[in-house]
Amino acid sequence: MQYIKYKLLGYLRLMRPANILTAVADILAGVAIAGFAVHPLWGNIDAILQITCICLAAFGLYGGGVVFNDVFDADLDSVERPERPIPSGIVSKTQAIILGVYLLTIGVLAAFTISQLTGAIAIGIAAAALIYNKWGKHHSVLGPLNMGLCRGLNLLMGISIVNDAVETMGWLAFLPILYISAITLISRDEVHGGNVGPLRIAAVCYMIVYAMILGVTYHFHPERIWFVIPIVLLFIFLTNKPLLKAMKAPTGPNIGASVKGGIIAMIVMDAAWAAGFANTPYAISVIILLPISMYIGKLFAVT
Length: 303
Hints:
- This protein is 80% helix and 0% strand.
- By secondary structure, it is an all-alpha fold.
- The protein is globular.
- It is found in: Membrane.
């Protein structure tokens, strides 16, 4: 029994459960941007099933992607992070590969239940994640953009719940690409520490994202802007507090905290989209994921 418990915990650690909730939040934001959640969803079984399936797709794709991150990094982790499941021996590399393939397959199949376009985007996410894990992370410029692409496609997958919305609103996927590229850039120094240069670049990218959320919301739904502003202020607080600390002292732990804060804060960014493009109860359902993710983040590593 104890053996099974350790195995399950090892698998969960590989999947980064706190991060998976941020991927689900991306989907819920995309659904809102597509105009699918403007009206109350309770009682609309078909709509709830569609949203559930597309969230399941994000769960599988993100979970599979981070599992393969540890598979490809197993040798490096044996030196830098020996406590991780694979180098510690809790999960073998073969078992991790099987888990990763299983999760990615679930993600792609769940996406195809929505539409062929959604399925194609899911395949793109899986491919981008594997390319990043194997090759992309080793490139100083292409690596962050590659990782950002995974998140941009994830938002796009949520938007694709209404296929026509991809053409009109799909350009918003640029924002998570920019945001996650910035986080990935600074994450390279979270083990050994670094300098303030990448942190300053991240700060500029963050400001662009804040401004775009407010500007886009005001352009499309000016009547919702007062619901969005307090959420964006919370987003600014959560991202800048650890970032400013890391700028003052760019040590590994401070940079790691900034990366963790930036990832978890994505839920708040997604809640801002939900507040701007859907309704208040829907936005609340997204932001509720924040305390859950923060709690799980204390139990399982985020990076």
